[in-house]
Structures are given as C-alpha cells and as structure tokens.
Write a structure and sequence with these properties.
mainly alpha; 2 domains; two-stranded antiparallel sheet; flat
C-alpha cells in the first residue's frame, strides 16, 4: 500500500498545465474541491468528470498514475461508502439481518465514492504538475495579505512544501525498511490484527529515527546556507501572470458558474 503513495511526487512533462502559474493551480484546486460538493446531481457530477478528464489530458499525466494515487485511500473510501449504504433512511431495496439497504443509500454511496476519488485525483494534479519550490512561492504569494496581521506566511508555506517533499522520501525509506525486514524473515501479511500491529513496530522505529535524522540534516543545511526566514529574501524566478494564466482563471470562473447553475437546477426538481 505504501508503495502506491504518490502524494507529493512531481511528474515532469511539457504541458499547458505544468506551465501555469502555481497560484492559478492552487485556485483551480480549491474551486474543483468546492464544485465536488456542489455537484449533488448526475449532470453536476458529469460536468466535474469532463472537467477533470480534460485537465488530466492537458497535463499529460498517465491514467495509471492517477489511479495508483487512489489505491492507498481505497479502504477509507469503501468504509465511508459502507456507512452511507446501510445508514441512510429511505425506500428499502433489500435487508441484511437488521440493516436495510435503501435506494437513497445506494445513491449517496455512489456519489460519495466518486467525489472522494475525484478529490484525491484533483488535488494530486497540483503536486504532479508543480515543483515544491514553485508551490511554496505560490502559497506565499497567494497568502501574502496575511503578513499584515503578522502571520508568518513564508514559514507556513515552507513547512507545507517540506512536508510534501518528505512524503515520497519517507515512503521510499519505508519500502527499504520493509524489504530489509522481510529478508530477515519478517512477514507483514500473516496473523490476526494484533499480530500485524506488532509486526509494524520494528518498521516504525527505524522509520522514525530516519525521519528525525533527515529533518536534522535539512535544518543544518538550511542554517549553513544562511536561511533565516522570508524577510528580505528575493526570488530568482519571481511569479508573474501571463496571458495563459488569465485564460485559465476565466475557464475556472465559467466552470464554477456552470456548477452553481446545475446545483440550483437540481434543487428545483
């Protein structure tokens, strides 16, 4: 499962989405997430599907890579769908013991599964198409107004960027530790739930030690290079909006208006 983790990975490609300003991609991700909760009807969900498919196509990201990013969260998605399936009141379709599966529950479970999958895929596009440095600059620039109330925006953006960068590194480190333990006879697939939990402990301890060591090395490296926060720092490649960025904002605005109209239309019927 850990090997399938793709969050924080950057997929290099020459595409229109890769070249967009990171602020546009941050705004687009936020708009897409909001639109998923507006799309409570089949037309709304279909519109979100077409929009997501077009973005993936323009970004040139392989579909298998997008699907692989969903696999680590598949248990949580199915678990949430299970509760909606058996916990929603309405017209009963069939009954299992004391629990009834309703027509409304099936509808809600399907919509929930699709929304969560799209949520993971939509947010993954941002990290696939944006380097950590560009993402940090975009976050800092977008939240720059918070500096007026003395919120350390640069430091917050730097922490988020480092956290995203560490995810694939620690995933790779975890994979190495598990392979080393398996070569010594450890098995992570056998036994009951308690035994599996005990088998994870010899993996988590060296992973924790490795993460602390890497964090310490990063802190020393940043200090050795004279890093003391964002005040007075300049950018080698400052962010500037171009024509394609304004066009992207216009497309996002049209998409959001369409989703709002579809949501209002669905309520009226």
């Amino acid at each position: 499962m850990f090997r399938e983790m793709t969050l924080g990975q950057y997929y290099h490609r020459d595409s229109v989405i890769h070249e967009l300003d990171p602020r546009v991609k941050l705004a687009g991700t936020l708009i897409f997430v909001i639109s998923l909760f507006l799309g409570k009807s089949v037309p709304g969900l279909l519109c979100a599907t077409i929009f997501l498919a077009l973005i993936i196509l323009l970004a040139g990201i392989p579909v298998r890579l997008m699907v692989r990013g969903v696999k680590p969260l598949l248990f949580i998605i199915l678990f949430s769908a299970f509760f909606n399936l058996f916990g929603t009141e309405g017209t009963a379709v069939f009954t299992i013991w004391h629990f009834s599966v309703t027509r409304e529950g099936i509808r809600m479970a399907i919509f929930l599964v699709v929304r969560l999958i799209y949520l993971v895929m939509g947010t993954s596009i941002m990290t696939y198409t944006t380097t950590p440095n560009r993402l940090t600059d975009g976050l800092e620039k977008s939240l720059g107004f918070l500096n007026r109330i003395h919120i350390p925006v640069h430091e917050i953006a730097m922490i988020m960027s480092i956290a995203l960068r560490f995810i694939p590194i620690l995933t790779e480190e975890l994979d190495k530790i598990m392979k080393a333990q398996m070569s010594r006879g450890a098995s992570f697939d056998e036994g009951n739930l308690v035994q599996k939990a005990r088998q994870i402990v010899p993996v988590l301890i060296p992973l924790f030690v490795s993460s602390v060591r890497r964090a310490s090395e990063l802190a020393y490296a940043m200090e050795a290079r004279g890093y003391h926060g964002g005040s007075g720092r300049t950018k080698l490649h400052p962010l500037r909006y171009e024509r394609r960025d304004y066009m992207a904002y216009a497309i996002l605005l049209l998409y959001m208006i369409l989703m709002i109209v579809l949501a209002i239309y669905a309520r009226s019927f």
